[in-house]
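Handout, section 3.2

Students often ask what a structure token actually looks like in practice. Rather than define it abstractly, here is a full record for Metal tolerance protein. The first block is the sequence as you would receive it.
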Amino acid sequence: MANSRVSDQHDSRFPYLKSQSFHYHKLEAESPPSWNADFGIGDRRLAFSRQTSFHQSAENDSVKPMLSRTASSIDIPQGEGGNVFREEKFFLGEEKVWEEKFSVVLFVSLALRIIRSGNRPMRRLLVLIFLNVAYSTAELCIGLLSGRIGLVSDAFHLTFGCGLLTFSLFAMDVSRKKADRIYTYGYKRLEVLSAFTNTLFLLFMSFSLAVEALHAFIQDESEHKHYLIVSAVTNLLVNLIGVWFFRNYARINLVYRKAEDMNYHSVCLHVLADSIRSAGLILASLLLTLGVKNAEVLCLGLVSVTVFMLVMPLFKTTGGILLQMVPPSIPSSALSKCWRQVMSREGVTEISEARFWELVPGHVVGSLSLQVMKGMDDRPILQYVHGLYHDLGVQELIVQTDYA
């Protein structure tokens, strides 16, 4: 009897879904919700599913509280406890070693898959990562052997940049997968996240260069070491190769038609910012050699401002997509006009929960709820609403109708 009551309630409460030419949900008029004395809620299915455990705990309430710690009924011999802990530590150590080996194997398999089936930008980015890894490793070894802290610091900076470039490469590879049951919209937005991460790193680099310029202004410039000029020249040559690889995206205000454009643009800005940083260090060293005062402060300050101005447009765009802002391509005045046109339609009494966002560049999604007079045929209204917002640039629209 209980199961039949649950199934009847399930059939009477859930709306049905029309899926012929539009994506919308139609809600039937519901009966007033019933009251349950034990819970004070209207859904009897929820009350039924939770009643048994509730009453069982209430019967034993006088014996002990519901949330209480009790002694375990499993007795572990004292002689075997130490062996268990030792075995656990052994397995944890093996797990850490296995994770390290797995990460290396994963990167190697990613590289082989890109070499075999990747497109040209992915292969170029892989070559750029290999060049940066080789150069940062050589710089780290030389810095450790010679005791140069500046070389070691620059090597760690390049290593962190290689990690971000690797994440961009991973995003390019994963975004080619199709949508599945878990990620129903696909993996394209991972490239937007990769571009946002790159721009965030570049903004941090701009801030660190400004702090370094301020430190150089306070400190005596005669104490600065100029041995980094060789490292800066080598780093500039490596980064110029990357700039040439992604030269089609070396613009500030780039029109993004796909998610790949954002990721490629972020990679180009990454290597371009590193090139500007290396060129600034070379120029500062040359000016200091010629005896120009405050040359390092001036060069680092200019590099910091330049990197900031290059990165901010992409940072705003990717941040707006991740925060699901209204797309800039759809002005608010156009949305207000569509709102008024729908409200003037016969039979529509209210519009609510109108939301529009950009899933990835070039794909706008929207949803809204319409309240229609009872007895009206909602199909002509839905056709009008879909056509109106499609002409505005919304590719995917979900409309839910309620009857007043």
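Discussion prompt for tutorial groups: The mean pLDDT is 77. How would you have guessed this from the sequence alone?
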